[in-house]
Every structure is written in structure tokens, then in C-alpha cells.
């Protein structure tokens, strides 16, 4: 948990002006194409856990799928994604395959479907190491076993020989995390790693991710729709809305004193046991704008209680509000 | 990699009595087919003029009787079984390999390549089998290779379609994306993640394909397009027997029963294998 100003280091991952659009592949990009990510820049520093929070369709997953080169064929990507100084966009598949799974790995949302069903867990884990580190099978199986023990899978030697369907959801997610750590990655992208799990298991997996970071010193990009999930683990939070970053800040500052009205509403939507009245959950009215619509003004304006005429005409740029935070709002909340 | 899959499958297969009986029948038939020349001194070609169209019995050397030319049917029937099994297994194995390669590539790569590859399959499967075999026979002359080639040429098409279908159904699943995310090249993803997952249904289809090929071979031989005299396959023997069904029914019965037994056993085994290979359904 470094508290030193992270700006002085070289970021592990640096995304600049990333745009992702989907269009009909025959006609190319036209006005009717779909903009999943409109313009996003962010940085993740060594050893840092950055959370990316937003509703479904805010582009938070698309951002990292683009970085991993996992987008569908009809996606058009602009901008730059630098990993350890190396540009990932436009990298040939062979070069990208050297990075993916070794230095840059991913934990998927649903551990039920992200493991190959007809291959034993131990083999799947060892495979990654044989492939990337050119280890022998014997050595790779040893490190697979070691890794399973480090992610606290009980009875690891037996689990090695089992198929994914013989494991519980939480166990499978531990296996996924173990797999992402097999080659000592610099950055693990965790895409909603707890959304498919029970609440109690969710807490265990988050605890595990916290430990992983302490033990291995890996950076983590934690994608979530739930501020409550990321609060306990992330140092900084990036809030996304309709394909853009609307606010960034340190976790503490952002949760305590959000500046963007959207973040403000999100923090109030989280269930709170200490709320005066438990029978009524506040919720965010309305829908995010369609990604096929052209952008006029602030995308959040139709749902925003503070919106003015200016908001509907002119899109607010992301600008520095104070030393900890940036927000894209004409009328930011007072701290 | 797949050894684990097969070990578990073996255990489940052993718990299935019908499949085990079928397997035992097949093993016995295969052993008899291989050992028949050792058990009985008669040759497949020798004509015994003193015993023409003799009924089966143990009093003389011809246990299954003889045909109209006085040839021993025991030896000829198992020679036929050997030919049929060899054709079925060999053509089956080649079709499996071809279909697996073609189908996984078409299914995984998709797009234009898939379109083109599937059109090729459709054009080839549009050719009528008998015409195809006659065509090949005319060009290449009558020999065993033409028979094998034509059997492979028709059976790998369906295999390729099945494999492609299976590949399509798992290609969009998250574990394939996860495999790509761990740095797998297309060849690697196909070999390590798609093949083990399509192997179950494909192995089942392969075991059901073997009796089909045997049947088609018998059919071609019945028409006189397949195995040539003095060699025999179950098909030529059945054809011979069919002509004598009133006077000497045993000429038809011995190869007929053997063929039926073989086909039923292979089908039952294929069915048992399907249940055994489904790791998610332990029932």
C-alpha cells in the first residue's frame, strides 16, 4: 500500500484516449455504429489496485478486453494501450500471446464457464507455465500445486486431479486466480471476479486478491459494478459512465466526498445498514444513454439532479478538482 | 491431457453391462477373425469337390459348411470379418483425423474460411456414393485402395460437419476466451482446449461410424464394387448366400449373423461410450 505519489513511477498500464466502436464490418464505421468506449485515459502503477466502477454498458470491461486483444472482429479501436512501456494495440498476435497470460493476465467473471470442462485442473494450471515459462511438465505441475496452496485451496493435491465441475464456485475462482498468477504477472485484470459468487464467498475472494497483491506485488485492475466490493481493496477508483471516465480519485476521498453527481448517487445506492430507514432503498432513476446515439452535452444530464442548460449543450471535460480527484462535471458536488 | 478423460470413462464404461457384453463380443470376434486360419486348416481358396455345398457340422472339416464351389465357409466368413473390420477401423480412423482437422479449423477460424470449407463439404456430399465409387474404379482400376479411399471420402464429410458444429458451440464460451487470454495461439487453443472438449461426442460418433462404414463396404461388395474374389468381405459372402437362400441357407446365415452381431455390438459399445465420456453426468 504505497502512499508515495504514484505519478513519479512509470505506470504498468497506461491507456491513452482509448475509443472502441462497433460497426457493420462491411460498411465500416458510420454514424449508426455503436460506441462502447468513447474516450478513456487511465494509468495503473506498479503494485497498485485500481478499481473501475460503472453500470452495465459503461464500457468498463470493453476497455480491458481491448487491452488484451480480446474484442470481436468488428470492433474498431483507437488510442493507445501501453503495458510496461510497450504498445499493445496493433501488436502482432504472436507477440501479444507472449504477454497475455504471463505478464498480463485476466480473471474472468464466471469461473463456472471460464475453465475448460474436460481438462483436469492441474493440467490447465501447469499448461500455462509450460507454455510461457518453457517449464517441464513435472516442474510446472509442482508450481501449479504450490500456487493452489498459496490461493488456499484445501486438499490441493486432490484438487489437481479433479475436473472443474467437481469444484465449487469459490474454489473455481481460486483456481482462476491461481492460473492468472502462474507466470508472475505484472498486472492482473479481474473482471467482476466476485459477481457470480455467493456473498460469503465473495468476501473470501476479495480477501484473497488483497493477499495476492501483498504477496506477489502485482498490480490489479478490479472491474466491478459495485462500489462496496472495491472499497476494501482498491487504492484508487475510476468511475465510468457511458464510455467515459466521469470521476477518478482515491478510494477514501471518492467514497467520503464524491464530486461527480453520478458517483454521489452511486454511493447512496449501496445498501447501508446504518441508514435511518431500511425499507426504502434509494435508486438511480432512468437509463444510461444508448451507445448508438450521438453524444450531445453531458451523457448523465438526463438523470442528473444538478443538470443545467449548459450540461445539455456542452460536454464537461475531465478536469482536476483537487489534489486527489478529477471529475467531468460542470457543477461538481462540494466536498 | 486426455488420459484423464479416458481413465474416468473406462471406469464408467465398466459399470455398463450392455456395453461390456458388446465389448466382449467384439473382442471375441476380432480374435476369431485373426485366429481363424490357425484354427481350421482349410484355405480361403481351396476347392473341396467332395464337399460341395455341404451343411455345417463337426463331422467333417467344414464347421460352417461349404459354398457351391466347395470352399470352407468358416475360414471365409472370418476372412470376411477381418476384411470388414479392417476397412471399418482404418477408414474410420482416417475419416476421424481428417474430419477433426477440417472441422475444428472451419469452426474456430470462422468467417470466410468457414464458408468456403463448408461449401466444399456440401459439394462433395452432393456426389452420389455409387457413382463416386464407379468413377474412382474406372479411373484407378479395381483395388483395395480405391475402396478405402471412397469410404473415407464419404465418411469424413459427416465427421467434419459434426466436429465443426461442436466447435461452434464451444467457440463462444468463456473458457475459449480465457484460453486466448492466457496467450494461446489458434493452433494451441484448438489442440489444448477445443479437441479435448469435442472428443467426447466425436468419439461416440466415430464408434457409430465404424459399423456404418462396414455396412457401406458390405453394400458395395454386394454390388460387386468392393472386395474381389477370391478375397471375401462379409458383404460379398452375404451376396453369395442370398443367391442360395433356398437350397443352402447356411451360406447366407454364417456371414449374415456375424455381420449383424458385429454391427449391433459396435452400436451398443458406441452408445455406452457416449454415456461414459460425459464427465458431467455420472449417472
Give the name of the CATH architecture of chain B.
Orthogonal Bundle
Largest interface: A-B, 35 and 26 residues
Give the CATH class of chain B.
Mainly Alpha
Helix amount of chain B, in percent?
A: over 70%
- Mean pLDDT of chain A, nearest integer? 86
Low-confidence region ranges of chain B: none
* DSSP summary, beta strand count of chain B: 0
Mean pLDDT of chain B: 82
SS element count, helices of chain B: 10
The CATH superfamily of chain A is P-loop containing nucleotide triphosphate hydrolases
What is the fold named in CATH at topology level of chain B? MetI-like fold
Q: How would you sum up the major sheet of chain B? A: none
Which tags fit this structure?
heterodimer; A: 335 residues; alpha/beta; Rossmann fold; eight-stranded mixed beta sheet; 11 helices; 31% helix; 21% strand; disordered N terminus; B: 283 residues; mainly alpha; MetI-like fold; 10 helices; 75% helix
What does this structure look like?
The complex is a heterodimer of chains A (335) and B (283). Chain A has a single domain (11-327), classed as P-loop containing nucleotide triphosphate hydrolases (Rossmann fold, 3-Layer(aba) Sandwich), CATH 3.40.50.300. Chain A has 335 residues and is of the alpha/beta class. Helices cover 31% and strands 21% of the residues of chain A. Chain A is globular, with a radius of gyration of 21 Å. Chain A is built from eleven helices and twelve strands. Chain B has 283 residues and is mostly helical. Chain B has a single domain (3-45, 68-277), classed as MetI-like (MetI-like fold, Orthogonal Bundle). Chain B has helices at residues 3-14, 17-39, 73-109, 111-126, 129-140, 144-171, 174-181, 186-222, 234-243, 250-277. The two termini of chain B are 24 Å apart. The chains are: A alpha/beta (335), B mainly alpha (283). The A-B interface holds A 68, 70, 73, 93-94, 96-102, 105-106, 108-110, 113-120, 123, 127-128, 131-132, 161, 163, 165, 176, 179 and B 1-2, 4-5, 111, 173-175, 177-185, 188, 192-193, 196-197, 199-200, 279-280.
Amino acid at each position: 500500500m504505497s502512499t508515495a505519489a504514484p505519478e513519479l513511477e512509470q505506470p504498468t498500464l497506461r491507456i491513452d484516449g482509448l475509443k472502441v466502436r462497433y460497426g457493420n464490418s462491411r460498411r465500416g464505421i458510420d454514424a449508426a455504429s455503436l460506441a462502447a468506449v468513447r474516450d478513456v485515459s487511465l494509468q495503473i502503477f506498479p503494485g497498485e489496485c485500481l478499481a473501475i466502477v460503472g453500470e452495465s454498458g459503461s464500457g468498463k470491461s470493453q476497455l480491458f478486453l481491448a487491452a488484451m486483444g480480446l474484442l470481436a472482429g468488428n470492433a474498431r479501436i483507437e488510442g493507445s494501450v501501453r503495458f510496461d512501456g510497450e504498445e499493445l494495440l496493433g501488436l502482432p498476435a504472436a507477440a501479444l500471446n507472449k504477454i497475455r497470460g504471463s505478464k498480463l493476465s485476466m480473471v474472468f467473471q464466471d469461473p463456472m464457464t471460464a475453465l475448460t470442462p474436460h481438462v483436469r485442473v492441474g493440467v490447465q494450471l501447469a499448461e500455462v507455465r509450460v507454455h510461457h515459462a518453457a517449464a517441464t511438465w513435472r516442474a510446472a505441475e509442482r508450481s501449479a500445486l504450490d500456487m493452489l496452496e498459496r490461493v488456499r485451496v484445501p486438499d490441493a493435491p486432490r484438487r489437481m486431479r479433479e475436473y472443474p465441475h467437481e469444484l465449487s464456485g469459490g474454489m473455481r475462482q481460486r483456481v482462476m486466480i491461481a492460473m492468472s498468477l502462474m507466470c508472475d504477472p505484472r498486472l492482473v485484470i479481474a473482471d467482476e471476479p466476485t459477481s457470480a459468487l455467493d456473498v460469503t464467498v465473495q468476501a473470501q475472494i476479495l480477501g484473497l486478491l488483497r493477499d495476492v497483491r501483498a504477496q506477489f506485488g502485482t498490480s490489479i485492475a478490479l472491474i466491478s459494478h459495485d462500489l462496496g466490493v472495491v472499497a476494501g481493496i482498491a487504492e484508487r477508483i475510476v468511475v465510468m459512465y457511458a464510455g467515459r471516465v466521469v470521476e477518478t480519485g482515491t478510494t477514501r476521498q471518492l467514497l467520503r466526498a464524491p464530486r461527480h453527481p453520478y458517483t454521489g448517487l452511486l454511493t447512496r445506492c449501496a445498501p447501508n445498514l446504518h441508514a435511518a430507514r431500511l425499507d426504502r432503498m434509494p435508486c438511480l432513476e432512468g437509463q444510461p444513454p444508448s451507445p448508438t446515439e450521438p453524444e450531445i452535452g453531458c451523457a448523465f444530464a438526463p438523470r442528473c439532479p444538478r443538470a443545467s442548460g449548459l450540461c445539455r449543450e456542452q460536454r464537461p471535460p475531465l478536469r482536476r478538482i483537487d489534489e486527489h480527484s478529477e471529475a467531468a462535471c460542470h457543477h461538481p458536488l462540494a466536498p | 491431457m486426455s488420459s484423464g478423460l479416458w481413465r474416468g470413462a473406462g471406469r464408467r464404461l465398466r459399470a455398463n453391462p450392455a456395453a461390456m457384453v458388446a465389448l466382449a463380443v467384439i473382442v471375441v470376434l476380432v480374435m476369431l477373425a485373426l485366429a481363424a486360419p490357425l484354427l481350421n486348416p482349410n484355405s480361403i481358396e481351396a476347392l473341396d469337390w467332395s464337399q460341395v455345398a455341404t451343411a455345417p457340422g463337426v463331422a467333417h472339416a467344414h464347421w460352417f459348411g461349404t459354398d457351391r464351389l466347395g470352399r470352407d465357409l468358416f475360414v471365409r466368413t472370418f476372412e470376411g470379418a477381418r476384411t470388414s473390420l479392417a476397412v471399418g477401423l482404418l477408414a474410420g480412423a482416417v475419416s476421424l483425423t481428417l474430419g477433426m482437422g477440417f472441422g475444428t479449423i472451419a469452426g474456430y477460424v470462422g468467417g470466410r474460411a468457414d464458408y468456403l470449407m463448408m461449401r466444399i463439404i456440401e459439394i462433395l456430399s452432393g456426389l452420389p456414393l455409387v457413382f463416386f465409387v464407379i468413377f474412382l474404379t474406372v479411373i484407378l482400376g479395381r483395388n483395395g485402395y480405391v475402396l478405402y479411399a471412397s469410404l473415407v471420402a464419404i465418411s469424413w464429410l459427416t465427421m467434419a460437419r459434426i466436429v465443426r458444429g461442436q466447435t461452434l458451440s464451444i467457440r463462444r464460451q468463456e473458457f475459449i476466451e480465457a484460453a486466448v487470454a492466457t496467450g494461446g495461439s489458434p493452433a494451441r487453443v484448438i489442440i489444448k482446449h477445443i479437441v479435448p472438449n469435442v472428443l467426447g461426442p466425436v468419439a461416440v460418433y466415430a464408434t457409430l461410424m465404424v459399423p456404418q462404414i462396414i455396412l457401406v463396404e458390405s453394400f458395395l461388395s454386394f454390388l460387386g464394387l468392393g472386395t474381389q474374389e477370391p478375397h471375401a468381405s462379409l458383404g460379398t459372402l452375404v451376396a453369395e448366400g442370398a443367391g442360395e437362400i433356398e437350397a443352402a441357407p447356411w451360406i447366407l446365415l454364417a456371414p449374415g449373423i456375424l455381420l449383424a452381431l458385429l454391427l449391433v455390438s459396435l452400436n451398443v459399445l458406441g452408445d455406452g461410450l457416449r454415456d461414459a465420456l460425459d464427465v458431467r453426468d455420472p449417472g
